[in-house]
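User: I've been going back and forth on whether these two constructs are worth ordering. Before I decide, could you fold them both?

Assistant: Sure. I'll take them in the order you sent them. The first construct and its structure tokens:
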Amino acid sequence: MCDNGGNPPLRVKSGHRHRRAAVSMDQSFEYGSPAYLLLCGLGGMMSCGLTHTAIVPLDLVKCRMQVNPGKYKSILRGFMVTVQDDGLRGLALGWAPTFLGYSMQGFFKFGLYEVFKIRYAELLGPEKAYAWRTGLYLAASATAEFFADVALSPMEAVKVRVQTQPGFARTLRAALPRMYGEEGLWAFYKGVAPLWMRQIPYTMMKFACFERTVEALYKFVVPKPQSQCTKAEQLAVTFVAGYIAGVFCAVVSHPADSVVSVLNKEKGSTALEVLRRLGFAGVWKGLFARIIMIGTLTALQWFIYDSVKVYLKLPRPPVPQAPESFKKQK
């Protein structure tokens, strides 16, 4: 998403002078510069940390439906039982590890995505970067998420334990030392492989589907060129594309999400053991709640991320256009 005059997302830079030329009068930082990439990470931190924390009640009910479907039979029933057992404050259980964990994840997810998207495009060259742009988005987002999940894993483990194991602990401050004392450092990273299983396909879909949906919306739906759209109109396209991407993300990542929820609740289990025990039907418990949660979440994340770019006057690349050399080859 961008204003007219932004840098092409798949542009291959060649030298310092080329980079300096990329800065327009209404932009604060060079596209691809360390400051630009750091602020993209900051935008990702805000978008993921704030949105995940805002939907903690829905996430809590979803997790409890996955690990205890007999008691939490539906979304509505899950909310009612939670309020009956813990009061309204119980719906906020796990908010602190959620905020910290997903803030760190967002920093690396969005920041490193920008890094790898630029670097992989440089390796491919302009023609291949455009022709293979979907593959480029998939590769850049998968690489970024690999590192983002390592940052997320400790707080995700704490969050799930607090939300799904009654009597264990109700706060981050109480859960951290107890988990470390009982299971050591492994308690915080035993779920990283299932996290990769859940988050890497999710993020690949999130970024690639978003990028291509934005492209399709401007090509087939929006009645005027992107360069003639106001910032508000462009942000509206961002939100719609983000929601569409989020629905696909939820479906792709839900089975692994079910495994993560059960695995972090229990001691000594492995991902394969949990998967066998849940079976095909079990891994799809809570899918509707996850679609609502992830669709809204993804749309808001892209909206916040793009809004941060607008506020900080960061270069916001336009929809990819075929380079002249590519057109000549056609």
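The second construct, handled the same way:
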Amino acid sequence: MTENQRIHPVVDMEAPRPPPPTRPLVPRGSFKSEKGDPTRLQQPIINQPFRRTAPVMYPRPPTKKRSCCCKCICWTISLIILLIIIIAAIAGILYLVFKPKIPQYSVDNLRISDLRLNFDMSLYARFNVRITAVNPNKKIGIYYQKGSHLTVWYKNTELCKGSIPKFYQGHQNKTVLDVALTGQSQYGNTLMSAIQEATQTGRIPLDLKIEVPVSVKLGKLKLRKVRIMGDCLLIVDSLSANSLVRIKASTCKYGLKL
């Protein structure tokens, strides 16, 4: 053998291997012994990237002006609600005490004074209507004001119109009114032909519409104006001039308009 040649030890593969090194029972970051030196295991410091944190924005405290406005709004809403409750309570008490009812109307008779064609082919009509108005209320009086309207229609065409006079109707009172209605309609020739055809059947539909402004009197208290709206559908046998028309059927509906 030469001097440069080295001799390596022979490793016995069947020889027992030494046991692996045991791990320390003391966990990382804790002291080795309660009685020994309090040396703490040092942990490696990991370099973390630098992060820039955004500034935290805190809401500004409300000003005194805004708080005053909120208080005023709350007080206003509370007062409005209180007024509504008071008005509703008063209305309920008045309703229970007086028990108001809508006046009732009926058409007693209808007379045709005039129904003819003019030279300009318009239709002239003059009706006399007798209406009975009934106030069924025991503690309520009714003031009939100016501005009332009574109109008679035939198939969406107004034939004539008039008004109810101004008067006062007491408690549980029945008043008979004679109202004169006059009017002039265009296309009288066509309208007259249609009326004559309906006369042959003996059933002519007429629509009497009523609109009356009234004031209600509760004891000594006079309330604001309201409007009584009425619609009476009449079936008559004919529309002959200078004759009393027989009413075969009558249906009336009424309501109030504030």
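Notes on the second construct follow. The chain has two helices and eleven strands. Residues 64-98 form the longest helix (35 residues).
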